[in-house]
Each structure stands twice: as C-alpha cells, then as structure tokens.
Amino acid sequence: MAVTVTDETGDIVDPSEVSSPRSWRRAFADLAQGWRQRPLWGYLGWQDIKQRYRRSVLGPLWISISMGVIALGLGILYSALFQISLATFLPHVAVGLLIWNFVSGCILEGSEVFIANEGLIKFLPAPLSLHIYRLVWRQTLFFLHNLVVWVVLMIVFPHPLGLSTLLAIPAFVLLAINGAWVAIFAGILATRFRDIPPIIASVTQLVFYLTPIVWSVDILSDNPAARERAQLVELNPVFHFVEIVRQPLLGQEIVGRYWLVTGVITIVGWAAALICLRNYRSRVAYWV
Prior knowledge:
This protein has helices spanning 15-18, 24-36, 38-52, 61-82, 86-110, 113-116, 118-123, 129-156, 168-192, 196-210, 217-221, 227-230, 237-249, 256-280, 284-287, and strands spanning 5-6, 12-13. It is an all-alpha fold.
C-alpha cells in the first residue's frame, strides 16, 4: 500500500527525503513558503522602521535627512580636495552613498539576521527565508526613503536623464536579489561561528574605501601614474553593483560589462547560498 507523505508546506514529497533534513526540496520549499508569507514579513519590516523612529517628530524622514547631511558634507569636502565641480561631484557621492547604505545594510544585518531573531526562530514555526525577506524589505524601504535626496539633487543640479534612467529599476531588483543570498550565506555562517560578524564589519568598512563612493575612477584615470592602478577597481564586485544603479540615476552612459559581471556574481552567489541553505538550514535553530 502506497503511503503519501507531505512536508511542512503541504507538498507531496518522496518518503526517502523525509528522514533527511538535507534535501534540495526542503531548501526550495523554505524559500517558497517564506515568499508566500509576504504580508507577514512586509508588516514586520515596516514596523522595524516605525519602531526605530518611535516618538520622533519627523519619524522616518530622519533617514533622508541624515543621508542628505552626510552626502552634502562629503560632497563639499571631496569636491574641494579633488577640485571638481560640486554640481558634478555631489550627485555622484550622494547616489553612491544611497546604494552603499543598501549594500552594507544587507551585509552587516545579514550576518546577524538569525542571531537577532533567535526568539522567533526557536518558538515560531516559520521558514528561515522569512527573516531574509524581512531584512531585504526593510533595507528597500530605507533606500526608497533616501531617494528623496536624489530627487532634490536632480532638481538643484539637473542631469541629462532619459529612458535609460528606467534601467535603475531592474538594476535595483538585481541588487536586492544579491542582498538576499548574501544574507543567507553570511547569516548561516555567522550563526555557526560567532567571530564572523566583527570580521565582516571590518571587511565591509575596508570595502567602502576601496569602492568609488566618495571618489571617482575618472579622477585617477586622468593621472598617468595612477591610471593602471585605477583599473584594479574592476576586481571589486561591489563596484559593479554600484555602477549599474548609479549610471542610470545620473544619466551616464550604460556600461554593459558591469551588468555581465553582476549577472555572473548573482548566479555563483545564489548557488553557494542554496548549498549552504540545503546543508545547514535545519541546524540554525540549534546554533542561535
């Protein structure tokens, strides 16, 4: 007599896979079940922002204000140091910081996403991916708030925007997809080895200075002595993700190789994250 076995999502599975927590079906089912719970992690992500600015007069507007003040200060400083027009360099710095805040948020908070949700993981029967989606959604809301700074700069310092500006939408979607796999991989690794979060924090700070956020590759390229060294920035994967979003937002020429590199990183990164999720998903609850 055949026996029908279902998993936690209600899908019919092979009985041979039930006894083994390490199965691709369980890994993909975790991602699918977490995605189906969009109302839950969407609400939780929004509440995270409201809770952070609770009893504040301006509320979430402080996100954009702090971002604008930092961008203005760095833009004025470095435009004077590099002797570049403020109208050109300030939008470059502001948009770079806008993208970097999203990237660093996914990396830093991703490394502690499961540790920070220890109580929910232990006592709430929910897929691990729910916490990943919640994190990426919260960072997306921060990004959208900070877009106000970009709008103001485009009014004050007009740039030749066109239809290519719409490429910023798929570029950001690609950025968010990569933020998800980074959070999965770093989150599981950091939950097992608690020395990983401070290491990631230090490396992330170093990557900020190695990425052309408050400086420009064109500045170094104009210097014959530094032109070859400036090309080494291509080895920085974050650089390509910053550029695919920044170029359309500033009306610059779209460089195809940046999209190619980010596409390859997306495939390789998700492959590594899925392997990690498949092998160690069931252990996270014991590690937190």
